Fold this sequence. Notes:
Blueprint: H1 2-11, E1 15-16, E2 25-26, H2 29-40, E3 49-50, E4 57-58, H3 61-71, E5 83-84, E6 93-94, H4 97-108, E7 113-114, E8 121-122, H5 125-134, E9 144-145, E10 158-159, H6 162-172, H7 180-189
Antiparallel strand pairs: 1-2, 3-4, 5-6, 7-8, 9-10
Helix pairs in contact: 2-6, 6-7
Amino acid sequence: HSLRQHMLRHAGKKYKCGLPGCPTVLRTASELRSHRSLVHDSTPSNRQYKCSDCSYAAKTKTQLRRHRARHDEPEDTGKSELRACPYSGCAFKTKLASHLQRHVRLHTGTKPYKCRHCPYASNNLENLRKHVLSTNLHPGKTIYECDVCQGDNPEPFQTNFAKELRAHLLEVHSDVFPTTGHVNDYVFRIFKTHQDPSFVDESN
Length: 204
């Protein structure tokens, strides 16, 4: 089975997602199934673990726990602490560390989210997503590209979703990324910059 998938990748066979509004093209049937399950399968029966602070729902307890960590709630108090902007005269406050860092970038001018296709850069992932997917400046292009794909693969794996890139790395490049920890470190470093050492990744 794995040999067949390997040969299909070399043969250049493509699997298009095919769902409305999704341009994702994958190289194996397994990656296509994983993509649809991770990105498009959002029926309530498949996402039974709900976040108590927002509308997010997960398929597994592990996914929910990872999401809950983004809320940065102290487990012993049950409620979040407000984080204040460190800049004098600014009244901005938020419960989320990632939101505070995104706000602080407005003061510092740091733009870690850089487009792979042009000089555009943004201080948050959502603006980069809009730039690549909604402006028609880069038709058919994606936010993420696997730079491990090489050799006989003329077209590297591409996707607009960090979780799909993680799944691809674990499935196709397990020799390079044997654990989810290795994969998460790799994806985290895609947008991390030396100018922003306390960088909090917004991808999921």
